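Exercise 7.
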Amino acid sequence: MAAPHPAPYGPPPHVDPRELRPSRTWYWVGGALIPLSLALGAILFIALILQATTPPDFAARTQGTQSTTFTVDPAVHTQPQWLLYGSPTPVDHTACSLTGPDGQQPTFAYPTFNHEVEDPEGSWAMIGTTELTRAGEHTLTCQAPDDVRFALAYGDDLAAHTMTGLLGSLATQLALPFLGAAGGLLLIIVTAVRRSSHRQHLIDQRTPHRPQQPRNPGHQHP
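Solution. The predicted structure, written as tokens, is:
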């Protein structure tokens, strides 16, 4: 029958938790990082959504039956698409016409997607699109009641304005909370593992060791 395992001298040495490294403070840091990242992600998400729903930079604005002019500069306006907005909604692009520098009259078409924004004076809605390829001064003329406003925006500016806001919002909503929560959880796990390892190291240092026993105590050398 196999000999029983030798009993230990006694309970393992006491290790004060304050001796362990890293400090328990890192538990609090990791725990706080999770809700803070969620709160920051929510704040940025709201801010970027507000950015995406504010009006773009209008190149021209008019009201009622007034006319306004704007310039198409090929060095700046490298894309041909321009967007017509109206306020208050609903209004229709058929109330407006364009006259180019060569006397041509580009027409508006219905937009392929909806875009509504707000400013201090009220809401704007995209009501028409057109393509302007001629450089020079253009005139926007509308026929509507005096309280109806119209404005033109460069299409590429809108793409940068809305897509940056919406994609940035989506990225912060998903990525920032995930990274913050993952970082906080990882910090807690690493702290726990390292403190456990340090505790075992201190126990090993403070535990008295038995003298090594011969493998066959009954065997005596002459």
